Automatic annotation (TrEMBL):
Involved in repair of UV radiation-induced DNA damage. Catalyzes the light-dependent monomerization (300-600 nm) of cyclobutyl pyrimidine dimers (in cis-syn configuration), which are formed between adjacent bases on the same DNA strand upon exposure to ultraviolet radiation. It comes from Sinimarinibacterium flocculans. The record marks 308, 364, 387 as: Electron transfer via tryptophanyl radical. Belongs to the DNA photolyase class-1 family. Belongs to the DNA photolyase family. This is Deoxyribodipyrimidine photo-lyase. PROSITE patterns: DNA_PHOTOLYASES_1_1 (PS00394), PHR_CRY_ALPHA_BETA (PS51645). Binds 1 FAD per subunit. Keywords: Chromophore, FAD, Flavoprotein, Lyase. Coiled coil: none annotated. GO terms for molecular function: deoxyribodipyrimidine photo-lyase activity; DNA binding; FAD binding. It catalyses: cyclobutadipyrimidine (in DNA) = 2 pyrimidine residues (in DNA). The lineage of its organism: Bacteria, Pseudomonadati, Pseudomonadota, Gammaproteobacteria, Nevskiales. Its cofactor is FAD; (6R)-5,10-methylene-5,6,7,8-tetrahydrofolate. The keyword Flavoprotein applies. PANTHER family: CRYPTOCHROME, CRYPTOCHROME CIRCADIAN CLOCK 5 ISOFORM X1.
Length: 474
């Protein structure tokens, strides 16, 4: 039998990799390949932070393959053309890959599958990214869920319980390998060292993902239900970039959590709370599959009439938000954390998004684009769900008229101001009472920190008035 191309995409691991298992089961040489084809993902080609992570993840995968007597063949160009070239060079008779569900990628993959089949090439695609793929869970009427809680009930009832497949000790390769290019040739890292602070808490690659999971289970899962809302504490799993790039799979995480539960010393509500959060990731992919227009368009069509700001100060306010110079300490702390680390605490993501869309009345799509370019865990499904949820125009959205008060949120979840002081050092000397809203105390705000660019009370009322006009126009 002829060789099989194993087409890696965002499944950059050897453990519990269904496409790898399928390729090995053929009993023929396996040729791992990675095809860099960002143009096929337009208009949502990976952003700068994602590309930086991808550089390190591909390097780690190549090293893992080398330890098993294999190698990663890296090519750049249109995926179908590149795969056909590799098939011609190697006489491969099959291609195996794991499915992705972003609209542009799914459409591209369908074209590739049909084209290769017409060439007489055996193809197989598999699920490595989700517990249950879109289409496997439906409402009683057969349609997609638009509310999370019933979706989670349906998903939780069918969580996978099959054992996780270990990484193979050896991967048989061909007698003669096709040529590839170095990962560095892809120029994924930024031209300036903007990403130098990204990797203190992480090590991209499968080994780093597993270590991150073990640390979370051993140190942070107990008490997760409360700690995950406090941005100054390391109470989140921080598995999101590892899951996005497929360095670890959700079945592996589920199995590890269930084993921790079986140990008997883990509060049930902490484990279930964490699994429920992973359920939101599944829900996001479910929604994106059924509503592929939502990265750019509101799921709630009434929001097409939302009177977003179009005044001349719009761009200046957006830039102040992006740079962490709004004068609202918790917001500025979050935006600076994002720029410096490629990540932001989930509670703070909601706070900064609410300020942008509600208080500043800047369209949610502009915030989503900024996150897309600056988050190492930028995921089209989750990013879309999160921004539409806060803006009030998506599935299971918060009431559209709900507006986070960033001062109250800061006082509640960062009471001692530790998170603010870390990321906004200009305010480090302020007493706890002043650090959340320095403008409210006479002579408290330092001269090198800006005054608020928006009045929170007045802008809240402006947003409520805008929602009222939207409903009238709709």
């Amino acid at each position: 039998m002829t060789a099989c191309l194993l087409w890696f995409r965002r499944d950059l691991r050897l453990t519990d990799n269904p496409a790898l298992i399928a390729a090995l089961e053929r009993g023929t040489p396996v040729i791992p390949v990675y095809v860099h084809d960002p143009a096929s993902e337009d208009p949502w080609a990976p952003g700068a932070a994602s590309r930086s992570w991808l550089h390190h993840s591909l390097t780690a995968l190549a090293e893992d393959l080398a330890r098993r007597g294999s190698r990663l063949v890296v090519r750049s160009g249109p995926a179908l053309q590149t795969l056909r070239a590799l098939i011609g060079e190697t006489s491969a008779g099959a291609v195996a890959w794991n499915r992705l569900h972003e609209p542009a990628i799914a459409a591209r993959d369908a074209r590739i599958e049909a084209a290769l089949a017409s060439d007489g090439i055996e193809t197989s695609s598999h699920n490595a990214a989700l517990w249950s793929e879109p289409g496997q869970i439906a409402t009683g009427s057969g349609g997609p869920y638009r509310v999370f809680t019933p979706f989670w009930r349906a998903l939780a009832a069918r969580l996978p319980d099959a054992p996780v497949s270990p990484a193979p000790e050896r991967i048989p390769g061909p007698r003669q390998w096709p040529a590839g290019i170095a990962v560095e040739t892809l120029a994924l890292r930024p031209s300036i060292a903007w990403d130098q602070g990204f990797y203190d808490p992480w090590q991209p690659g499968e080994a780093g993902a597993y270590r991150r999971l073990r640390r979370f289970l051993d140190e942070d899962l107990r008490g997760y239900g409360d700690a995950r809302d406090r941005p100054a504490d390391d109470g989140c799993s921080r598995l999101s970039p590892h899951l996005h790039f497929g360095e670890i799979g959700p079945r592996q995480v589920l199995q590890a959590v269930r084993r921790a539960q079986a140990g008997g010393d883990l509060p049930e509500h902490d484990a279930e709370h964490f699994l429920r959060e992973l359920g939101w990731r599944e829900f996001a992919h479910h929604l994106l599959h059924h509503f592929p227009q939502t990265p750019d368009q509101p799921l709630n069509a009434a929001f097409a009439a939302m009177p977003w700001r179009r005044d001349r100060d719009h761009a200046a306010d957006l830039q102040a938000w992006q740079r962490g110079r709004t004068g609202i300490p918790i917001v500025d702390a979050g935006m600076r954390e994002l720029w410096a680390s490629g990540w932001m605490h989930n509670r703070v993501r909601m706070i900064v998004a609410s300020l942008l869309t509600k208080n500043l009345l800047i369209p949610w799509q502009q915030g989503a684009r900024w996150f897309w370019d600056t988050l190492v865990d930028a995921d089209l499904a989750s990013n879309t769900l999160g921004w539409q949820w806060v803006a009030g125009c998506g599935a299971d959205a918060a009431p559209y008229f709900r507006i986070f008060n960033p001062v109250l949120q800061s006082q509640k979840f960062d009471a001692g101001g530790r998170y603010i002081r870390r990321w906004v050092p200009e305010l480090a000397h302020l007493p706890d009472k002043a650090v959340h809203a320095p403008w409210t105390m006479r002579d408290a705000a330092p001269r090198d920190y800006p005054a608020p660019i928006v009045d929170l009370a007045a802008s809240r009322q402006r947003a409520l008035d805008a929602f009222a006009r939207m409903r009238e126009d709709g």
